[in-house]
């Protein structure tokens, strides 16, 4: 097989790859210079849709509806767009070997790709229960959700197990979004997680208390402080029940696991500098290897605002880091310079009629504000995080676009917090004044 050679190769065909491709086009990449190599079978899409409208019985999202860049209000890049721009979209192709010294990638079928400049955008993979040696974790109808094929399998199971029972393992945002989607499909849902409350890496006890009560009111059973230790199966190897560490046994026709991800860096082990589990980059997403960039979930980059190296597994950063890397590549070629990446962390989630946004850093003391009653007709409440006398993070449920902008500004400006009591009383008004 003849080698294929490109000036630029993006390895991975997810969110970062799609936004990078758009930036390449904006920068005037020439026909034939850029290739995207992806093991997925479809052009880059907005991955967050998979745990939301993709699973809904009504108003269902399907491709081509959510190809990038619609998630941020941009143009929808259909496969034809890549053809028009002369960008090779090499799908269904898993790269199994990367030799950064000879600038070569080799696929599972033995194809060889040469590049001058590489952007690593391989994202994350899910952590599996079999990684912890949980018994029976290879039974059918135990699902993970990362790529569209995973979502298709889950949709099939939801149809096949109409009015059945599901157990969701994990209380992070994937667990919360999937529990809601399953419930909307009339499945009887239980959630199990070891922590004292859901989304413990972000939510305060006050915030979590709202979401847990809201879910309970929707009929979702929440079991905390324990973990799944084994699965019982029928003669077809389909999951039938889940054994919990506390001795309980839960019936389940479907199990969905959302216990976190791991950056896909293994192809590059020993060839590139890593930090905090990701590929170390500078503020232009350049790695320790010349002509190699890393963006999105895999990059550990300098978070200028906090003067610290961080890795971020969220869609907004995937989009922005990709754009920054491509701008940096073109600026370098033209002998220009651009500003270093100056990222304000931003995460969001949506489930049922709820929608929250978080900006900044969730460190220090916290102040809850607003109406956190799960039964009140409109939910508007939030939290501020205060460190060294400054407000460094802000969370808001049910905000309008203007209110969300206001909390983003607070997190960026970091205004002083004169008194925590005053912050609690002022609530959103504090943010809207900044
Ligand atoms: P990805 O989008 O994961 O893309 C990586 C790509 O690389 C994939 O196409 C993969 O197939 C490909 N790849 C990997 N290895 C190879 C290889 N060896 N050869 C070829 N191709 C390869 N974030 C939010 O902020 N809000 C949300 O609501 C939200 N919801 C989410 C819901 C789900 C179900 C998931 C899975 C994630 C969600 N995220 C959300 C996180 C967000 O989607 C990711 O942070 C983002 O997709 C990261 O972009 P990326 O390009 O780095 O990686």
Helix and strand topology:
Elements (H helix, E strand, L loop, with lengths): L3 E8 L3 H12 L7 E4 L41 H6 L3 E3 L4 E5 L4 E4 L4 E9 L3 E3 L15 E2 L4 H13 L4 E5 L3 H12 L3 E6 L11 H13 L3 E4 L3 E6 L5 E6 L4 E3 L2 E4 L3 E3 L10 E2 L2 E3 L11 E3 L4 E5 L4 E4 L3 H19 L12 E6 L2 E7 L4 E7 L8 E8 L2 E8 L3 H13 L6 H7 L1 H6 L1
Parallel strand pairs: 1-2, 1-6, 2-3, 6-19, 8-15, 9-10, 9-15, 10-11, 18-20
Antiparallel strand pairs: 4-5, 5-6, 7-16, 12-13, 13-14, 17-18, 20-21, 22-23, 23-26, 24-25, 25-26
Helix pairs in contact: 1-6
The structure holds flavin-adenine dinucleotide.
Q: Let me know the average pLDDT.
A: 97
Low-confidence stretches: none
- Give the strand tally: 26
The proportion of strand residues reads 25-35%
Radius of gyration: 23 Å
InterPro entries: FAD-oxidoreductase/Apoptosis, FAD/NAD-bd_sf, FAD/NAD-binding_dom, FAD/NAD-linked_Rdtase_dimer_sf, MDHAR3-like_C
Function: Catalyzes the conversion of monodehydroascorbate to ascorbate, oxidizing NADH in the process.
GO molecular function: monodehydroascorbate reductase (NADH) activity
Keywords: FAD, Flavoprotein, NAD, NADP, Oxidoreductase, Redox-active center
């Amino acid at each position: 097989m003849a080698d294929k050679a490109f000036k630029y190769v993006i390895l991975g065909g997810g969110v970062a790859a799609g936004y990078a491709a758009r930036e390449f086009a904006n920068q005037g990449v020439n026909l034939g210079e850029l290739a995207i190599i992806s093991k997925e079978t479809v052009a880059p899409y907005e991955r967050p849709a998979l745990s939301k409208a993709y699973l809904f019985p009504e108003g269902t999202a399907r491709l081509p509806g959510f190809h990038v860049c619609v998630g941020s209000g941009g143009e929808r890049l259909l496969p034809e767009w890549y053809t028009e721009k002369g960008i090779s979209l090499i799908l269904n192709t898993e790269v199994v070997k990367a030799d950064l010294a000879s600038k070569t990638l080799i696929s599972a079928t033995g194809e060889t790709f040469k590049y001058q400049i590489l952007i690593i955008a391989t994202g994350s993979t899910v952590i599996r229960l079999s990684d912890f040696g949980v018994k029976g974790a290879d039974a059918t109808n135990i699902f993970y959700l990362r790529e569209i094929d995973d979502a298709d399998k889950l949709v099939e199971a939801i149809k096949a197990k109409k009015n059945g029972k599901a157990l969701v393992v994990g209380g992070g945002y994937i667990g919360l979004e999937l529990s809601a989607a399953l419930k909307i499909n009339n499945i009887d849902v239980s959630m199990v997680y070891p922590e004292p409350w859901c989304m413990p890496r972000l939510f305060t006890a006050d915030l979590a208390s709202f979401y847990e009560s809201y879910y309970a009111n929707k009929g979702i059973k929440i079991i905390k402080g324990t973990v799944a230790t084994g699965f019982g199966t029928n003669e077809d190897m389909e999951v039938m029940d889940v054994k919990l560490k506390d001795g309980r046994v839960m019936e389940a026709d479907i199990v969905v696991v959302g216990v976190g991800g791991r950056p896909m860096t293994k192809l590059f082990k020993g060839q590139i500098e890593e930090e905090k589990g990701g590929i170390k980059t500078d503020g232009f997403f350049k790695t320790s290897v010349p002509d190699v960039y890393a963006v999105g979930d895999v990059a550990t980059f300098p978070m200028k605002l906090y003067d610290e190296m961080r890795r971020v597994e969220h869609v907004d950063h995937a989009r922005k880091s990709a754009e920054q890397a491509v701008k940096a590549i073109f600026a370098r070629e033209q002998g220009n310079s651009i500003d270093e990446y100056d990222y304000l962390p931003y995460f969001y989630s949506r489930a049922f009629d709820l929608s929250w946004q978080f900006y900044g850093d969730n460190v220090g003391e916290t102040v809850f504000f607003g109406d956190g009653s799960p039964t009140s007709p409109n939910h508007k409440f939030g939290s501020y995080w205060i460190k060294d006398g400054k407000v460094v993070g802000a969370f808001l449920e049910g905000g309008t676009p203007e209110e969300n902008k206001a909390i983003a500004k607070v997190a960026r400006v970091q205004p002083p917090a004169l008194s925590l009591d005053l912050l609690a009383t002022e609530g959103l008004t504090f943010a809207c004044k900044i």
